Amino acid sequence: MLTVRLVEERICSEYAEQTMRCPVHICIGQEAIAAGVCAALRDEDAVMSTHRSHGHYLAKGGDLRAMMAEIYGREAGCCRGKGGSMHLVDLKAGFMGAVPIVGSTIPIATGIGLSSKLAGRDIVSVVFFGEGASEEGVFQESIQYAALKKLPVIYVCENNGFSVNTPLKDRRPDGFSVTRVAEAYGVEAGQGDGNDVLGVYEMARRAVDRARLGEGPSLLEFSTYRWREHCGPNDDHHLVCRSVEDFEQWKEKCPIATFTGFLTRENLLGADEIAQMREGILSQVDEAFAFAKTAPAPDAGLAGSGEYA
Ligand SMILES: Cc1ncc(C[n+]2csc(CCOP(=O)(O)OP(=O)(O)O)c2C)c(N)n1
């Protein structure tokens, strides 16, 4: 969680330099969902993500230098500098890809689950998506198929209350619940607090166990809040649909501060160790940014190559 937070804070503070030339969707405030779910996975398990991908990529073990090089549009980037922030991939880490077409990775992750089952492997496929994506028809088609075939897929819905700037109340009828939709299709579903990393981990662990035992798909819906604007490094509390009061309330529940408090109270980690951890991460972040900023740009002649595999 702290790595994701510190990397994204650095992206935000350097973005105005205009040397990162791709849009960035910041997940500050939502880190516990990526960290808690990925902590329940094995290296070979598969994860897919969205436009808001940094946390999922890093939590699954994606290479930080390759991510930063990608965001800076460098040849050493994980998509050779052609994709940017919304097209991260690290196959070695089981991070199968992020795609900004909302909802598009839900059927792909379902297919990964199908291939795992057909091949008799016990790989679990996880797809992260926002609650906006759950309003796409392909979500219902995918979960129905996964339930029918008892696929080892975990659908993780990060409900931050907004699709760009449209709040839930303007998008859904009263009483609508994505977990009830999932249950109607025969998918095991549960809701949890997206600020509680241990709670997220526990729910994910149970879903992973079910998937590996051949008991089929699960849907986990976590309540959360994005602290920054939909796209870009700034705040957006000035917008009519958002408010400083809401932000302050969610900030009180910061997943990192909450977990740090728990670790300290339980004497599991001292202030020195926390400071050391922070310093260690910051030096990795320095190193990754220095690498990305000075790495060579891709050869223009290769612009059309490697687009399909
Ligand atoms: C198919 C499609 N429709 C619309 C968009 C424009 N768009 C980009 S992000 C977004 C909102 C997605 O909201 P949600 O899935 O809840 O994710 P969040 O941004 O809140 O993390 C939209 C509508 C898109 N990229 N793809």
Automatic annotation (TrEMBL):
<keyword id="KW-0560">Oxidoreductase</keyword>
<dbReference type="Pfam" id="PF00676">
    <property type="entry name" value="E1_dh"/>
</dbReference>
<dbReference type="InterPro" id="IPR029061">
    <property type="entry name" value="THDP-binding"/>
</dbReference>
<protein>
    <submittedName>
        <fullName>Thiamine pyrophosphate-dependent dehydrogenase E1 component subunit alpha</fullName>
    </submittedName>
</protein>
<feature type="domain" description="Dehydrogenase E1 component">
    <location>
        <begin position="2"/>
        <end position="299"/>
    </location>
</feature>
<dbReference type="InterPro" id="IPR050642">
    <property type="entry name" value="PDH_E1_Alpha_Subunit"/>
</dbReference>
<keyword id="KW-0786">Thiamine pyrophosphate</keyword>
<dbReference type="InterPro" id="IPR001017">
    <property type="entry name" value="DH_E1"/>
</dbReference>
